[in-house]
């Protein structure tokens, strides 16, 4: 029977030294004040050119990042593949502001899709629309759609190149979800892509953040439109990464908070959404992006109830590299499709991503405690074997 408590599977292939490094890191991450100051200090030190790269590279970078380049991430990808876990190359460089920067990012995403096409261990690709255009463009297009906007036209051209490559090479590609004031534009782009590229099957995936009050209704309406227009929606379900930012902005600008009132409400909608999609899996596809054990068990139960095989080609579980390996490896061992995001880029480029991981592990109740408990359990198991 599937259990996420099996630490032998979760940490197979990790040396005692690897586990020790993770323990030190997660203990540091469990101290919010240390994370806050460390994060600020890291940004400042990199700006001043102080020699902190080595320190970052051997600690947080090693835990959460595949490598500095696509090629140097291949070792991590192979390591995961040896444990039956797929990879999703994530070029998570943020903050580019020029057309040249956006073109470079587009080309890099296309290279990720081409790399995926040649490797069975990379089943999916991913990108953020805000890596291809400024947030200002997404915000104004969310407020007032304007098809004559030159920046919008350029963005659509970049997206078309990405989706065409994905379709030709048969690599499903996911669009990450972003802040609610950018998302209407992203939703529009995703649905246009569905109409064009998902007519034979799910190639393009959109992401729904179930911490938003309106997303369950959106999901249902999306399925109705899909039936009417004749396409297969691909959906990645997540809870959502920007809760505090969302609440702060709603308060500051005096509009109703778009985020669920409680964590229980988010959990309820997340599980309802996953059941909704799995009940209709012949007409779409699902990636479940979560580190929540209960949600993963819910999907497993639901698949059993509907007599779907674990390796169902339209259903994937997904976690981030360096997090919740006990979920990823135990699911993969039981035959389910699992793929982890493998971010890559230089230390300086990935600093915002690493800062988010650090804060998330500090603020997500229980996540760090859970990782530490499992690490200690594995140490005890190994010690007992030696005695
Ligand atoms: C593979 C993968 C892809 C991802 N892609 C995206 C993406 O495209 N866009 C994005 O925004 N995020 C993305 N995330 C991050 C994700 O949204 C969550 O922030 C993160 O995974 C934690 O949620 P959880 O389901 O793993 O677990 P849990 O620890 O069970 O849930 C924590 C989450 O619950 C919600 N929550 C916590 N407290 C409350 C509260 N008081 N009221 C209401 N809700 C609350 C928040 O969303 C919080 O992040 C991704 C995560 C993974 C694993």
What does this entry look like structurally?
This protein has an eight-stranded parallel sheet, with helices on one face. Helix 2 packs antiparallel against helix 16. The chain is an alpha/beta fold and 387 residues long. The chain starts with 6 loop residues before the first helix and ends with a helix. It is globular and about 70 Å long. The model has no long low-confidence stretch (mean pLDDT 91). It has two domains: 101 residues, no CATH class; 276 residues, TIM Barrel (Alpha-Beta Barrel), CATH 3.20.20. The chain contains 16 helices and eight strands.
Biggest sheet statistics? 8 strands, parallel
Measured between the Cα atoms of the first and last residue, the distance is 28 Å
Q: Which stretches are low in confidence, meaning pLDDT under 50 for 5 or more residues running?
A: none
Number of helices: 16
How many individual β-strands?
8
Q: Average pLDDT, to the nearest integer? A: 91
Class by helix and strand content? alpha/beta
Hetero groups in this structure are:
flavin-adenine dinucleotide
- Strand order in the largest sheet: 1-8-7-6-5-4-3-2
Order of helices and strands: HHHHHEHEHHEHEHEHHEHEHEHH
Rounded Rg = 20 Å
Q: Report the β-strand fraction as a percent range.
A: 5-15%
CATH topology of the largest domain: TIM Barrel
Question: Which CATH class of the largest domain applies here?
Answer: Alpha Beta
Shape: globular
Per CATH, which architecture of the largest domain? Alpha-Beta Barrel
> Level of helix content?
55-70%
Count of spatially separate domains = 2
